[in-house]
């Protein structure tokens, strides 16, 4: 593989390793273990595992290794560790890093399961977490302390699509010696330059755009070789959050087309947001790619002007209108994944973010009328017509 390759070449060829058969498509090594030629060789491999050597699929596997190398090449990271799901990645990235007595600062606008790890899990083990408004750099400056071990945020938050200034937060965190951990799902690995912008650790749920066709769970953590192999890998390989070889293969094939898919989805999302913005049934149309979005300037500098593949609609009629709207859709499906080829509509307040308290939902803008809409690969005009008809149905 060449360092000078551009993104789309890395997506197709990055990390590819062929077996003795010289197959074209990446091989699935669906094996949990590996045979040693001798007892001495087994002993030696447990002392030091060489680059082409494997022990057990929980520790590593050739197909999983290809996925990790392709992701590292794509993100411009030194190394990567593939996880069983996005949440295994978030949990491993944070839990392997902190210990009792440490302090963590986190943006408060988080996906429900991320909120569980920060608000419940870390606290139970004696880690103090301070939650702030992630879009406010002054709030980060005020919250970071000499004992702050890590900062955590979703670079584009789920589901209200706040965009957080990676370079700005990284500058503040680094001055305090804190590790910058970014959940980058909504930014997608195609639009992201998070490592270059100062993130130390970047996390993706591969379940979303990397698979992109709703088939398999997966996750990945990217960072320096020292962090990935020294800090994260021992935690992941002994606690069991490793990615299955079959799912790694699904993700490798997903990466081949991800650039085409998310660029088309983002283009469609911009057109849909523009067409529906100001519709009388809507209290708010949230899409970071729209010029009126509060962090649109950051979208230009941080994401190359791409507003992502998800938009959120806030219906004036609250939950009843949101449910009418969802039930009137004929092309998008009601579900809770995102980044899929199929457009997916979600009511966060009653599903993905149900576990948050009512007070926190209000604070985060997760209103009863809010619908998260993940734009798929269907024809844009068909989607606009269907969404418009559903808005009409929700208004009566
Ligand atoms: C979906 C999601 C996750 C979790 O990913 P899974 O693969 O479902 O475990 C984490 N963070 C964000 C922002 C997500 O959207």
Automatic annotation (TrEMBL):
Coiled-coil region(s): none
Catalytic activity: O-succinyl-L-homoserine + hydrogen sulfide = L-homocysteine + succinate
UniProt record similarity statement: Belongs to the trans-sulfuration enzymes family. MetZ subfamily.
Recorded GO CC terms: cytoplasm
EC numbers: 2.5.1.-
UniProt keyword annotations, A-Z: Amino-acid biosynthesis, Methionine biosynthesis, Pyridoxal phosphate, Transferase
Quaternary assembly: Homotetramer.
An annotated GO BP: transsulfuration
Free-text function comment from the UniProt entry: Catalyzes the formation of L-homocysteine from O-succinyl-L-homoserine (OSHS) and hydrogen sulfide.
Name of the coding gene: metZ
GO molecular function, one term: transferase activity, transferring alkyl or aryl (other than methyl) groups
Entries under HAMAP family matching the protein: MetZ
Protein name per its UniProtKB record: O-succinylhomoserine sulfhydrylase
Taxonomy, superkingdom: Bacteria
Necessary cofactors: pyridoxal 5'-phosphate
PANTHER family: CYSTATHIONINE GAMMA-LYASE, TRANS-SULFURATION ENZYME FAMILY MEMBER
Organism: Leisingera methylohalidivorans DSM 14336
Positions where N6-(pyridoxal phosphate)lysine occurs in the chain: 208
UniProt cross-references to SUPFAM superfamilies, sorted A to Z: PLP-dependent transferases (SSF53383)
Pathway noted in the entry: Amino-acid biosynthesis; L-methionine biosynthesis via de novo pathway; L-homocysteine from O-succinyl-L-homoserine: step 1/1
């Amino acid at each position: 593989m060449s360092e000078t390759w551009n993104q789309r070449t890395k997506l197709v060829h990055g990390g590819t390793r062929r077996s003795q058969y010289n197959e074209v498509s990446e091989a699935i090594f669906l094996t949990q273990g590996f045979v040693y030629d001798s007892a001495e060789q087994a002993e030696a491999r447990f002392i030091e595992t060489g680059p082409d050597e494997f022990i057990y699929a929980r520790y590593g596997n050739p197909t999983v290794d290809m996925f990790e190398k392709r992701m590292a090449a794509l993100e411009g990271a030194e190394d990567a560790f593939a996880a069983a799901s996005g949440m295994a990645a978030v949990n491993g990235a944070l839990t392997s890093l902190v210990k009792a007595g440490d302090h963590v600062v986190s943006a408060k606008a988080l996906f429900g399961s991320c909120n569980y790890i920060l608000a419940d899990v870390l606290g139970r083990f004696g880690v103090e977490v301070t939650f702030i408004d992630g879009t406010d750099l002054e709030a980060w400056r005020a919250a970071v302390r000499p004992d702050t071990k890590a900062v955590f945020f979703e670079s584009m938050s789920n589901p209200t699509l706040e965009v957080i200034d990676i370079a700005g937060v990284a500058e503040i965190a680094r001055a305090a010696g804190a590790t910058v951990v970014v959940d980058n799902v909504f930014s997608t690995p195609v639009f992201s330059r998070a490592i270059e912008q100062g993130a130390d650790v970047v996390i993706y749920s591969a379940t979303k755009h990397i698979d992109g066709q709703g088939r398999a769970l997966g996750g990945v953590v990217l960072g320096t070789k020292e962090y990935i192999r020294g800090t994260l890998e021992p935690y992941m390989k002994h606690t069991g959050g490793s990615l299955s070889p079959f799912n790694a293969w699904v993700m490798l094939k997903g990466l081949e087309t991800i650039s085409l898919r998310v660029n088309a989805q983002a283009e469609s999302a911009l057109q849909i947001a523009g067409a529906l913005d100001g519709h009388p049934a809507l209290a708010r149309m949230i899409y970071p790619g729209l010029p009126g979005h509060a962090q649109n300037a950051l979208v230009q500098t941080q994401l190359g002007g791409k507003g992502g593949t998800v938009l959120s609609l806030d219906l004036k009629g609250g939950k009843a209108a949101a449910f009418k709207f969802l039930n009137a859709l004929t092309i998008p499906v009601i579900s809770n994944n995102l980044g899929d080829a199929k457009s997916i509509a979600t009511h966060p307040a009653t599903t993905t973010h149900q576990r948050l308290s009512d007070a926190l939902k209000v604070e985060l803008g997760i209103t009863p009328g809010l619908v998260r809409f993940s734009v798929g690969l269907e024809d844009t005009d068909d989607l606009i017509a269907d969404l418009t008809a559903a808005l009409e149905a929700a208004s009566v």
